[in-house]
Amino acid sequence: MDLAFTPEEQKFADDVRAFVKANLPADVRDKVKNGKHLDRDDYMRWQQALGKKGWLVYTWPRKHGGPGFTPAQRYIFENICAEEYAPGIIPFGTKMVGPVIYTFGSEEQKARYLPAIRESTVWWCQGYSEPGSGSDLASLRTRAEKDDDHYIVNGSKTWNTMGHWADWIFCLVRTDSRSKPQEGISFLLIDMKTPGITVKPIIMADGGHEVNEVFFDNVKVPVANLVGKENEGWTCAKFLLANERLGIAAVPQSKRGVEALKDIARAEQDNGRPLIENQSFAEKIADLEIQVTALEYTELRVLSQMAHGGQPGPEVSGLKIRGSEIQQRLTELTMEAVGEYSAPYLPGLLWQGTNEAPVGPEYAHLAAPRYFNTRKTTIYGGSNEIQKGIISKMVLGL
Amino acid sequence: MDLALKPEHQAFADEVREFARKNLSPATKEKTLSGKHYDRDDHVVWQQALGRQGWLTYTWPKKYGGPGWGVTERYLFENVLAEEGAPRIIPFGVKMVGPVIYTFGTAEQKERFLPGIAASTVAWCQGYSEPGAGSDLANLRTRAVREGDHYIVNGQKTWTSYAHWGDWIFCLVRTNTEAKPQEGISFLLIDMKTPGVTVRPIIMLDGAHAVNDVFLDNVKVPVANLIGKENEGWTCAKFLLANERLGIAEVPASKRGVGMLRALSDDPSMAERIADIDLQVQALEMSELRALSTMALGGAPGPEVSTLKVRGSEIQQRIAELAMEAVGEYAAPYQPGMLFHDTNETPVGPDHAPPAAPRYFNMRKTSIYGGSTEIQKNIVSKMVLGL
Amino acid sequence: MDLSLSDEQKQLQEQAERFVRDKYAFDARRKIAATDRGWLPENWAQFAELGWLGMSFSEDDGGYGGGPIETMIVMEQFGKGLVLEPFLPTVVLGGGMIARSGSKAQKEALLAPMIEGKKQFALAWLERQSRYNLADVSLKATKEGAGWSLSGHKGVVYNAASADHIIVLARTAGSAREPKGLTLFIVDGKAKGLSRRDYPTQDSLRASELTFDKVSVGADAVLGKVDEGFGVVEDGVDRAIVALCAEATGCMDAINAATLEYIKTRKQFGVAIGKFQVLQHRMVDCFTNAQEARSMTLMASLKIDDKDSVVRAKAASGAKVQIGKSGRFCGQSAVQMHGGMGVTDELSVSHYFKRLTMIDLMFGNQQHHLTRYSNLAMAA
Q1: pLDDT digits (tens, 9 = 90+) for A88-108
Q2: How many CB pairs under 8 A join B and C?
Q3: Which CATH class for the C231-379 domain?
Q4: What is the distance in angstroms between the Cα of B326 and the nearest Cα belonging to chain A?
Q5: Cβ of C35 under 8 Å from any chain B Cβ?
Q6: What CATH number is attached to the domain comprising A198?
Q7: Is C345 close to A203, i.e. CB distance below 8 A?
């Protein structure tokens, strides 16, 4: 056991840092640093730079075009990107549908879809949840009926993140309504330009538009776009959800967030002194930092297990639970640090990137919207109640 | 709406305080304030003094020998006694079986049992839980089989507080095994001196002996000792549990606890934690007063009193936890002599150190007994929220 | 001791309930929030007509002789409806401070028209650096002939855009953060040299940043005594806190009711999600939290007229701690139990959540008031 990085790992870290410094566009870095909303082009420019280097799909094995990072290298890569204020990689292509395709897809499918995911030339989104199927995903009702060499898809998907920017969507659809809920589901890739698809925005509590409802009205999808076998899509779905839970802990982002919180606490005044010198508040930050450290070491333990050939087990659900709670606490403390100056609501500055001057410091107007918005982290990707249900059943045998 | 006391209430509070100062033994009071364990006499002497004054049964209506006090008098009585360091009144006679007897008992039973409770000359204990029937009380198996004018009782009760001091025990027993669990239960009074009754101590994690197993082996109990009708004991049980939950919040004792905590530490971050629990106690007290105020207007205590029990137990636990935190590492030495006996030993560390950790350990029981926190939340969820 | 409402108080409660039911359905509120003012003059006129603007003032001051309990009753219903009309800044803060500290002339000129619905107020105390310290004031008022000249900045002043008069806390003497040497001035909302930047708040109220550039006022603009404004504003804020706690109690009742309804009807895995014990217990915890919030609000409402300022301060801070704690728990739990729907703008739940969150930050959050209460309790 050794916590220190080897000289090779140290060298790798230096390479990553040099790469990020050279390739992350300054305006994108600035937006991430100041917590501003990124647009599609911001993500694309950074992801395409990573793609050229071969690092965008840093979790993929070499044989599918990944860099073949060791767990230590992944850890270093993620942390340095976060430290350098790189945007988070949009997971739908690289971490979700990509691995599903290289694990369950045909050779043709791999050849057709993987290069564009590696290079980030196609934007993917996810069609899983439905209005009546949230935590109970298997109860989904969007129907795909076979009509010669096509499926005709009808139904609606919801909580579709960034679907308004997407070129393709991967969907769970029902292809057999007579079998048990899990057994009649298929995994389908759908071009968002196909006639019959409508995207309707859902406005969030903070006033932002990031998720949508997607309606399918007699959408014609070639059978060639089916991944895996018909009615066996639940296998892909489970595989994908387990993968999703790992990265969702967002430890590097939370580490960066703690540092940003300290900066704010240094800038804010409390009885004529910097807020960070207020003992109660300093203790709250310390408490959070310890939680982040505990989570980080738990994740490192899981990664080390995987490096020795183990698969991530259901206990990764624990990472998602704690990771999401920590993200929420971070936004809560940030809002507490900002105090009453969290109250002004400045949608122009927040959403339209106007030149409106902030009220108070630049970071103030973001504090409350982020706090509101981050409530989603304990809900999405399988709510924390569902995650605890999984641990209770699969790990504890209850 | 008004929080202020009327002059007659102020006079009443003064009278209670004067009584406590005259009648509470200084040794007993010292045990309360230092967190040591009482022995049987501490309770009996104090309760008999209250009994002579007619105050022991302060929650009883006048027609059964209670003083017939209103909400304000009860509130003042409990608070003044807590402030004066009186031990809490052991509830099994006065607050549990007494009300069951005057509500469901016959005239003979009332005459026979109530005076001994009111004077605290008879000590009662409670035979409810069994090894296989904890939260799921209706699952109890202790059998009572009718034979002529007697029941023959066989089985085991557990968690029986003060059974080793008890003269009588009130028991839930199964008189019909065919019916649904709740429908075959009867409420029986048993003399602890009856042959076949055996008491075995259970030593708690702090070393104290307060609870017991009670074994019943062919115990012969006269049918005259049945309260209410045969197989309708569950009605008495529910009535008793609802009564129990109200007093179980222990607000006056927690108020005293907060005052004692404040004297222990002047560290500012500790002070804030004490302030936090102080406010929790105030919220609980106001909630209890609101419930009492509803009762005073003729309303019955609803299932929402379950939340008072939940919060009351959490608060008692938090106070014990903070007291231990205040002591720091000096909570570690285990000093049973200082806890259970009137020794003149010198404590290791400050005077308040010896009971700190044992009390913290022991208070974990409060969220378990009288229906665990989880059970209380089930009750509220079902009865109040309709889930 | 008596904790029951009188018949008149019950009527007031029913009246306020009816107002919220008739005028503050979710969509109606959305429309009100989108108007220029952010509140409706016709609603304000109705408050005047119903006597709500004068109910908590003495008959000598032209009111109807009620007190904090009446304020509590109305504010609680306002919380249930997320009412946007500026009752708190105008009546509780402005009106209250003028009634307690104003001169006869100020009362005649300001209080009487306020009760008739013809004047509104705002309190400007916060500055960028103040956080929750009411004495951390650097806006300066200097003598100018018989009157004063005010220069400096004030932030997050609720209702400043609609206020006919702004009550401004200014430093007339003493050093930074010294309570002594602060003076309250009643400034015309349209005074020369006063500029505003108006904006909506997270919870759909209206507030402004105010810049004072040599704003001239007469000697008669001083509310209370020169250099003695701190006690007046501290007392005024404590009373506003208690009213705010009542509003939060109403918010919690409403958000809990919406959540309870949701988990009874939302089905997953073939059953209503309220059948899952993990949600049942969380719902019970919400219910208990709201009960405690109500208890502390009642306690504070009963004590806020106490003669002893320490009793008042402890009551206000104590209730604010509870409201912060309970509001956060009920708000976060409601969002969580609503799932994705809880984080959208589409249901009322996120709007109650936002209001409860902002209430915690207003006039000092849970932590601030815990420290304040602790210091007061230690000193006692």
Answers
A1: 999 999 999 999 999 999 999
A2: 122
A3: mainly alpha
A4: 18
A5: no
A6: 2.40.110.10
A7: yes
Domain boundaries, chain C: 7-119, 122-228, 231-379
> By mean pLDDT, which of A162-171, A319-328, B168-177, B245-254 is the weakest?
B245-254
Domain C7-119: give its CATH architecture.
Orthogonal Bundle (1.10)
Judged by DSSP in three states, B4 sits in: coil
Subunit contact A368:C202, Cβ cutoff 8 A: yes
B267 touching chain C per CB within 8 A: no
The catalytic residue positions of B are 244
DSSP state for residue A8 in the 8-state scheme: H
3-state secondary structure of B158: strand
Annotation: CATH topology of C122-228: Butyryl-CoA Dehydrogenase, subunit A; domain 2 (2.40.110)
pLDDT digits (tens, 9 = 90+) for C349-371: 999 999 999 999 999 999 999 99
* Residue A283 contacts B, CB cutoff 8 Å: yes
Percent of chain B with pLDDT over 90: 68
- Cα C333 → chain centroid: 24
- Domain residues for the domain of A134 are 124-231
Q: Sign of torsion, CA C39 C44 C50 C54?
A: positive
CA distance C46 to C23: 11
Asked whether the beta carbons of residue C318 and residue B268 sit closer than 8 angstroms, the reply is: no
Reduced DSSP (H G I as helix, E B as strand, rest coil) percent helix, strand, coil of chain A, to 5: 55, 15, 30
Contact partners for chain B, using 3 or more CB pairs closer than 8 A, are A, C
Output the CA–CA distances (angstroms, integers) from residue C332 to A373, B46, C245, C265, C285, in the order listed: 12, 48, 18, 20, 12
| Closest Cα in chain B, distance from residue C104 (Å) | 30
Which residues on C lie below 8 Å from B307 (Cβ)? 284, 287-288, 291
To the nearest whole angstrom, how far is the Cα of A354 from the nearest Cα of chain C?
15
Facing residue for B272 by CB, picked from C264, C294, C371: C371
Q: Which residues of B touch C274 (CB under 8 A)?
A: 387
Q: Which residues from chain C sit within 8 angstroms of residue B271, using beta carbons?
A: 374-375, 377-378
By the CB < 8 Å criterion, does C281 face chain B?
yes
Q: pLDDT digit string (tens) for A11-61?
A: 999 999 999 999 999 999 998 988 888 999 999 999 999 999 999 999 999
pLDDT in tens, C78-129: 999 999 999 999 999 999 999 999 999 999 999 999 999 999 999 999 999 9
* Chain C environment of B384 (Cβ under 8 Å): 284, 287
Paired strand residues for B170: B126, B189
Chain C hits for A271, Cβ within 8 Å: 131, 133, 136, 177
**Residues of chain B contacting residue C298, judged by C-beta atoms under 8 Å apart:** 1, 286, 290
CA A39-A41-A44 angle, to 5 degrees, is 115
- CA distances B218 to A387, B141, C154, Å, are 52, 14, 83
Minimum Cα–Cα distance from A278: chain B residue: B269
Residues 243-282 of A with CB under 8 A from B: 279-280
Chain C residue nearest residue A343, CA to CA: C201
The complex's ipTM works out to 0.90
Give DSSP secondary structure letters for C154-193. EEEEETTTT-SEEEEEEE-SSSTT-STTEEEEEEETT-TT
B107: region left, alpha or beta (phi > 0 left; psi from -120 to 50 alpha): alpha
In this predicted model, what pLDDT tens digit does every residue of C35-64 receive, in sequence order? 999 999 999 999 999 999 999 999 999 999
Counting the structural domains of chain A, the total is: 3
Domains in chain B, CATH or no CATH each: 7-89 (no CATH), 123-232 (2.40.110.10), 248-384 (1.20.140.10)
Q: At what angle do helices B7-23 and B40-53 cross, to 10 degrees?
A: 140
